[in-house]
Amino acid sequence: MLETSARLLRLLSLLQSRRDWPGAELAERLGVTTRTVRRDVDRLRDLGYPVESATGTTGGYRLGVGAALPPLLLDDDEAVAVAIGLRAAATGTVTGIEETSLRALAKLEQVLPSRLRHRVGAMQSAILPLTGPGPTVDPDLLTALAAACRAHEGIRFGYQQRTRRVEPYRLIHTSRRWYLLAFDLDRDDWRTFRLDRMDRAPQPGPRFTPRPEPAEGVRTYVSNALTASPYRYRATILFHAPLDIVAEHTSPTAGRLEHRDADSCLFHAGGDSLDKIALFVALKGIDFEVLDPPELKHHIRALAHRLTHASRDD
């Protein structure tokens, strides 16, 4: 006879494999009496599994729908399928679930037996996704960084031919790239790192106590770091349209939107050329004003003059 804990896991696996189970058949599969099955079902209910009693001549049980998601048991094939699906989602094939998929993948790969790791790696190497142009990131790197963030474990890695020692906090995904938000120990400040620029795999370091997040909040800090800080010029634009309307014409990596009132919003962006900023803002097709820098207005006038000249009928 199986020990109680092992028997409960076996019972749960059977209940997940098909909809209805007669009590006598469950008892036969487990090598116990129907009375023991009833006691084990009660134990599963105490653990939060919604096991329902099925009516009928033979009676039985089924795993119902609960208010919360209890732990699930996966066989080998199911575990491989979930890992492959999570890897695909983590690389951006399904918009909006990349970071969630990465967290789930880190948990799953931590407990995968080596034989299943080999199967997942073999299947992944045979899959050829047709993605758009742009830098790519190894899912193994994403998994390692996600695990370090979750465990509050410091890491060292090569970045543009330098070694960086950081405390990793968050992985950030945009429509084109992955970034790591971390506290740089050598610079004693927060930094964002492009994952595709890491030239050496991360090495584990000591565990750390999480620091307070940046004063302006993680979202604002990262948005500023990606859209303004790296550039020579910074601009603030007043759009005469609600924020949700302007958001349809831009992206988080192009600039940071700030609510002003019901009919307008502010747009903070950066660029290496004022001409490029002028063209980018003008192409939105929304009325706007330049608040800063003043010299951007001259570039917009020059752009308007060129466009007017090009549209004249000779």
Automatic annotation (TrEMBL):
**Signal peptide extent:** none
Name the Pfam families on file: HTH_11, WCX, WYL
- Keyword ATP-binding assigned to the entry: answer is no
Is the Ribosomal protein keyword given for this protein?
no
Q: What UniProt keywords apply to this chain's record, in alphabetical order?
A: DNA-binding, Transcription, Transcription regulation
Q: Which GO terms describe its molecular function?
A: DNA binding; DNA-binding transcription factor activity
Where does the HTH deoR-type domain lie? 4-63
Superkingdom in the source lineage: Bacteria
Protein name as it appears in the record: DNA-binding transcriptional regulator
Organism, per UniProt? Planotetraspora mira
